[in-house]
Amino acid sequence: MPSIDRRTLFAASAATFLTAARGAKAQAAPVRVGVLTDMTGLYADAIGPGSFLAAQMAAEDAGGSVLGRKIEVLSADNQNKADVGSAIARKWYDQDGVGVVVGMDNSSVALAVEQVAKDRNGIAVAIAVGTNDFTGKFCTPTAFSWNYDSYCLTHGIASSLVARGLDSWFFITVDYAFGAALESDASNAVRAAGGKVLGSVRHPLNAGDFSSYLLAAKASGAKVVALANGGGDMTGALKQANEFGLQQSGQTLAPMLCTNTDIHSLGLPVAQGISLMTSFTWNRTEQTRAWSQKFIARHKTMPSMDHAATYSAVAHYIKAIAAAGTTATAAVAAKMRELPVHDFYADNAKLRADGRLVHDMYLVKVKKPAESHGAWDYEEVLQTVPGDKAFRPLAEAGCPLAG
């Protein structure tokens, strides 16, 4: 058997090492995005599978990779339960290499995941989360709120209705952090505008039967019955309010959170005349129309503001990784704050120190059936509310990072 000299052995070893190194580089761990949302519950139409698709579209539009690493999008159902959501996020950060969790879409889930992200050195981006505490007293350096909060949803509606003489209010409120925040912010805005709050009732999440709550609202004699809830709770309450004749008796129904998917579910005969705040309407510009047409071709419904915000957040996260040249959490979070958000969803918006994305909001009115020119032509924009007017001032946020 011939002998092998040391130079031959060294060359063979070096070749094996280089081959292994190239293989390791080619198989670098993917950049993973986790979409944690309500996939099957009362918020599934406005969020759910559509948010997963929106995140996938953002990854595809980025070319499917960043820094030479494939982008993978995972999804999970948080079931609107804080313990379920936090357990999924913990596993994603610890075991699955997820760098950012997007969505949450329930205030209690969002607050829980925000702290998990802080403990596990991950990034958390809330999309449809109402509680102001997310960017307030519980703010962290790696948590961001992209779409709305209870302050921006309520102040424009309340001041507008009170100015029209609708100055007495009664609240039907979902009994968890989101509902409490909506009622509190709207009540403050009503009183600041010179109106008064006559009372409120609380209902459980996914209530189903609103008869007793609607009877209390009707008996109050309030000019405005405000619905401090969302999703299936809001649409269910509106449908039953129509059956109980609240609008026919002269009361105005004001949902604090209503999306175009909710309007679609209700139908224009029920939803007509409702005023609401939104961060996105699909037919506003050439850019919103173009993206929305791509979305509806795959999802078969028009995107909600939550779907559009999810795309924007994931696209910005990917851009921040590319700009930072790394997936390291602190560097990416810093780039997310540094770079403006300029896309079809938000025009030169900025992330504040408290994690709030400051962007324009739109006061819209639901069209009458005769005013609609086709499928999904539901909303008329009445007013653009600039971001610095729409959202709570940073000095009032109560976030320790605000300085």
Helix and strand run: HEHEEHEHEEHEHEHEHEHHEHHHEEEEH
Mean pLDDT: 92
Number of strands: 15
Shape: globular
Number of helices: 14
- CATH class wording of the largest domain: Alpha Beta
Query: CATH H-level name of the largest domain... which superfamily?
Result: Response regulator
Q: Can you tell me the number of structural domains? A: 2
Gyration radius (Cα, Å) is: 24 Å
Alpha-carbon distance between the two ends: 76 Å
Proportion of helical residues: 40-55%
Largest sheet descriptor: 6 strands, mixed
Low-confidence stretches: 6-26
| Major beta sheet, strand line-up | 2-3-1-4-5-6
User: Helices and strands: which structural class?
Assistant: alpha/beta
CATH architecture of the largest domain: 3-Layer(aba) Sandwich
Strand content: 15-25%
CATH level-3 fold name of the largest domain: Rossmann fold
Q: What report would you give on this structure?
A:
This protein is of the alpha/beta class and 403 residues long. The protein folds into 2 domains: 31-148 and 284-359, Rossmann fold; 152-259, Response regulator (Rossmann fold). The chain is built from 14 helices and 15 strands. The strands form 4 sheets. A 6-stranded mixed β-sheet has the order 2-3-1-4-5-6, with helices on both faces. A hairpin with a 5-residue loop joins β12 (350-351) and β13 (357-358). α3 runs parallel beside α4 (107-120) and α12 (305-324) crosses α13 (329-338). Mean pLDDT is 92; it is low at 6-26.
